[in-house]
Amino acid sequence: MIPREFEYHAPKSVQDALGLLAQLGDEAKLLAGGHSLLPMMKMRFAQPGHLIDLGRIAELKGIREENGTIRVGAMTTENELIWSKLLQDKCPLLVEGARLISDPQVRYKGTIGGDISHGDPGNDHPALMLALGASFVLRSAAGERVVPADGFFVGTYDTLMKPDEIMTEIRIPVPAPGTGYCYAKLKRKVGDFATAAAAVTLRIRGGAVQDVAIALTNVGPTPLKARAAEDSLRGKPLSDASIVAAAGLAMNICDPAADQRGDAEYKTAMAGEMTQRALHTARERAGR
Amino acid sequence: MATKQAVSFKLNGKAVDVVVEPRELLIHTLRERLQHTGPHIGCETTHCGACTVDLDGMSVKSCTVLTVQCQDSEMLTIEGFEQGGALHALQESFHEQHGLQCGFCTPGMITRAYRLLKENPNPSEEEIRYWMAGNLCRCTGYQNIVKAVQHAAKKLAAAAA
Ligand SMILES: Cc1cc2nc3c(=O)[nH]c(=O)nc-3n(C[C@H](O)[C@H](O)[C@H](O)COP(=O)(O)OP(=O)(O)OC[C@H]3O[C@@H](n4cnc5c(N)ncnc54)[C@H](O)[C@@H]3O)c2cc1C
Ligand code: FES
Ligand code: FES
């Protein structure tokens, strides 16, 4: 399995990468960790004429906190997320999610920016980003814009990102202390994508749900924000019954494609089950 | 044809230079150009881990890395484990604990276990299973692989003491 021929470029700065992108146009693809793109190129599902490797651009790496916002460089790898003390302390949902992605070797190479940019509804970071209220920094030769995760994912392999843009950074508001969280993912085995998964963040104050976010992986053409389910929980005490009802509302928006992981009915049921499990675990973890 | 590129890296401590098409995968450069046939091709689809090599301190599947990405890197393959005629503690341990049967997965297993023990010199069984999950074995049932890695961890700790 060998990709079609292409030319390879390894710029050292975002500016040089943007220059190449502008010059080479449609023929070019950005290469991050390569663990979605190279498999697709080996199968010849993708056949770019040029690869622009972001791997030598130091400014795209790293995790830091600034004024209540966590900033993650797009080329930060899954293992770097998992090992980050900052994330373990302040954003453990991202660590829990990254730990459930594929296997160690894939996690040494795969990047958060690539996982988000790829637009694959089977990828896990998109739902995590929705649950965390993240936003993405997109840079082009014309300048920089910041777009919220909510609304970014348009369709399968389709996002708001334009062909002349590079995702440089992921911004996540530091979750308030005591925020409960969980990523519940059903997968058949290590290295398989989710049959269904649910990401939850939850704040409980004075016995009632102050805020909640629920996002689903791989049960539609994009990750799904379960808005009706969230609305049903806000402002009320969280009970086993209200969790079951919210999971039912989450299932209503599922539209999964049948494949070897199961038919649509099964996957929808599993999305409900993952929503329930994630809400239960988030409740246990939430401060009151 | 796409422009060939010269790529230089260190392989098991020795400088090597190759000239490759950008589309050449690292596993093919290692096996076909550099006669390093320890890294195996099992699946070609990033699943089995038989092609695992150590690249700049990361365990990677060399069927999913382009050789041109490896400019200036340091690489370790199973061929680099034996030093001065003495087997590495991991090689000894896989032998002593029967961590292999057909041996097809073994170069990848040992290379992955090497990086795991660098990062976590005393892993629990659970940690070994989680952090070795990218390497498949069709023969052993994994039990003796876990034992071999634990055994090697003890040997390495004793040697360091
Ligand atoms: C066996 C296997 C199992 C996997 N299982 C899972 C899983 O369960 N969950 C999961 O989430 N992922 C899974 N993955 C995918 C893996 O996490 C990929 O690494 C990830 O989807 C893409 O990230 P990358 O850095 O490898 O990007 P690449 O493959 O290099 O790029 C992916 C796409 O994004 C574009 N791109 C990359 N970076 C940028 C950027 N900064 N700006 C703009 N565009 C960019 C590229 O042009 C390309 O189109 C799996 C992969 C394998 C091989
Ligand atoms: S041959 Fe590379 S992972 Fe199987
Ligand atoms: S020993 Fe045969 S595949 Fe592992």
Helix content of chain A: 25-40%
CATH class of the largest domain in chain B: Alpha Beta
The largest interface is:
A-B, 29 and 32 residues
Instruction: Report the CATH architecture of the largest domain in chain A.
Output: 2-Layer Sandwich
Level-2 CATH architecture of the largest domain in chain B? Roll
Series of secondary-structure elements of chain B, N-terminal to C-terminal: EEHEEEHHHH
The number of helices of chain A is 11
* Rough outline of chain A: globular
Secondary-structure content class of chain B: alpha+beta
Taking all Cα atoms into account, the compactness measure Rg of chain B is: 16 Å
What's the total number of strands of chain B? 5
Oligomer: heterodimer
Q: How far do the termini of chain B sit from each other? A: 55 Å
CATH class of the largest domain in chain A: Alpha Beta
Give the CATH superfamily of the largest domain in chain B.
Beta-grasp domain
Beta fraction of the residues of chain A?
A: 25-35%
Kindly name the structural category of chain A: alpha+beta
Ranges of chain B with pLDDT <50 over ≥5 residues? none
Strand order in space, largest sheet of chain A: 4-5-10-6-7
What's the main sheet of chain B like? Answer: 5 strands, mixed
Describe this structure in words.
The complex is a heterodimer of chains A (288) and B (161). Chain A contains eleven helices and 14 strands. Chain A has 288 residues and is an alpha+beta fold. Chain A has two domains: 61-173, Uridine Diphospho-n-acetylenolpyruvylglucosamine Reductase, domain 3 (2-Layer Sandwich), CATH 3.30.465.10; 180-285, 2-Layer Sandwich (Enolase-like, domain 1). In chain A, the strands form four sheets. In chain A, strands 4-5-10-6-7 form a five-stranded antiparallel beta sheet. With 161 residues, chain B is of the alpha+beta class. Chain B has two domains: 5-80, Ubiquitin-like (UB roll) (Roll); 89-160, DNA polymerase, domain 1 (Orthogonal Bundle), CATH 1.10.150.120. Chain B has a five-stranded mixed beta sheet, with helices on both faces. The mean pLDDT of chain B is 97. The A-B interface holds A 1-8, 10, 31, 34-35, 38-39, 41-42, 51, 53, 55, 79, 102-106, 108-109, 190-191 and B 1-3, 5, 21-25, 28, 44-47, 49, 52, 58-61, 64-66, 68-69, 71, 112, 116, 131-134. The complex binds flavin-adenine dinucleotide and FE2/S2 (inorganic) cluster (2 copies). The site of one FE2/S2 (inorganic) cluster has 12 residues of chain B, from loops.
